[in-house]
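Hi all, long-time lurker, first post. I run a small reading group and we've been trying to get comfortable going from sequence to structure in the token notation. Rather than ask abstract questions, I figured I'd post a concrete chain and ask someone more experienced to write out its structure so we can walk through it together at our next meeting. Sequence below, copied exactly:
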Amino acid sequence: MPHSLAKVLLHIVFSTKYRQPMIHPSIEDELYRYMSAICRYHGSPAIRIGGIADHVHIACSLGRSVAICDLVEEVKRNSSKWMKSKGSPEFRWQNGYGVFSFRESEVPIMTRYIERQKIHHRELTFKEEYRKFLIEYCIPFDEKYIWD
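-- Answer (accepted) --
Happy to help. Here is the structure in token form:
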């Protein structure tokens, strides 16, 4: 086959360190645009980025030549530096992350889910939401190792 072709859609989730509410509404849109630019630079265009004060969801198409761990590391590292440059010197992301796949037919559902984070989290904490994803995707986990 002369060409290598792929389309892998990812839902990436990670929180601020200790789930501190550090993403203020006044800066979140600019942060999400910055994160989107990082994704695009690494050949992994974002479909939608959103969240609330203590965590972020990124729906993106994974670039053919980038590893998931490298993409997440670049997004977290660069956006953390950016947040610090915007007046949050103590800003940090959690050490880990979750990545879940979804189908092209689910793009509208995923987009709506991310857009409605503020509504969704009136009734559900980040920890509850994250556990729900892990269970839904049959990912075994130990509570003492997934939170920092």
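A couple of things your group might point at:
Residues 8-146 form a domain with the Alpha-Beta Plaits fold (CATH 3.30.70.1290).
The two ends are 45 Å apart (CA to CA).
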